[in-house]
Amino acid sequence: MNTKETDRFIKIAKGPIETPVYLLDESLIETNMKILRHVKERTGCKVFHALKAYASFATFPMMSKYLDGVCASGLHEARLGREEFGKEVHTFSAAYRETEIKPILKYSDSIIFNSFYQFGRWGKTAKRSGVEIGLRVNPEHAEVTTEIYNPCAPYSRLGIVHSLFRQEFPQHRNMVNGLHFHAMCQQNADVLERILMSFERNYGKYIRGLKWVNFGGGHHITRDDYDIELLIRLINRFKTKYGVQVHLEPGEASVHNAGFLISTVLDIVKNKAEIAIMDTSAETHMPDVLLMPYRPHILGSGSKNEKKYRYRLAGPSCLAGDVIGDYSFDRPLKRGDKLVFTDMALYSIVKNTTFNGINLPDIAVLRAGGKVEVVRRFGYKDYRNRQS
Ligand SMILES: *Cc1c(COP(=O)(O)O)cnc(C)c1O
Fold first, then answer.
1. Ligand 1 atom closest to Cα of 186?
2. Which of 44, 63, 61, 40 minimizes the C-alpha distance to 53?
3. 305 and 222 both lie in a single domain
4. How confident is the model at residue 319 (pLDDT cuts 50, 70, 90)?
5. Ligand 1 pocket test target in 49, 93, 150, 249 with most atoms within 8 Å of CB
6. What's the chain's average pLDDT?
7. Per-residue pLDDT at 99
8. Do 223 and 272 fall into the same domain?
């Protein structure tokens, strides 16, 4: 982000905006959409936004102009995709519930099964409903080093393994429209290239005659150093070699670097270091900070010891480990100062909780014309409705 953009967001934060608030920048999301559309135009592939990463439908009318639809992880996402995004819906779940299969089929254009048992149980119903059928396979190659995000880790339940696939698939192939794999997380196209080598080695001979192959998500396409040309070559080569359509379902890439979380310093306490207690919490409002873990960037801040005034930032919850990270600033922090955390649109709003009864941040959209529109404000009822 350049200085001008940085100043713009710091200015918004200093203004009357109430905190904590997730601020979604519609123009920055649109910039990402244009990159994804470029990949579509150069390859003819389809791109579905993964609702799992980001489901703030206030920006869907803009996003749906660029993409082919969404991918959903189950009933509620499929329904949101159908009702709010309004284009194609492709649903994958590790296992489906009896009571949910009918509405899932109603809202989905394709359903992707994770086992031959699930396929046998629901496949015919799907066919009769006119819903395309996919099978998720384990490509048996991944380079995700954080084990909890690695779909190809030992004992992974995600995707049929090749040894089972080759026994079962031949007798069912005329029922199946596509194959699906998902094995990446925030990675570049060179990783996809190596996954494709393993995928094709195992599954290449089964692809001809299918309608599509879904390359999953985890493609960090909208990141500055992402090798878009390599992605385009890989897709085009694959389409020519096998005569199938290619689907991508990025989540993170759709809203990468396009959202902020603005938060106010409530207090500053001392215990060996200066500790700023914010009105936002890692545990409840940015859970990946603790899970991944990672340290989110704050506009105008430096690394732990880089600048003169140093603080540990932490949340108001009673979790001792509700620590966002160590930062430094050019000026001392004061109570009431507002800080802007970057890249907060993804895996945040969709994952947040009301642990400790902490209120959820507002959701606001910075529209293309420069107007900040608060689209959702939460309160006591939202907390109470999740208890009983
Ligand atoms: C998580 C997930 C995605 C989206 O992944 P990103 O890392 O957000 O791009 C797509 N497809 C499947 C099956 C997933 O589990």
1. 7
2. 63
3. no
4. very high
5. 249
6. 97
7. 97
8. no
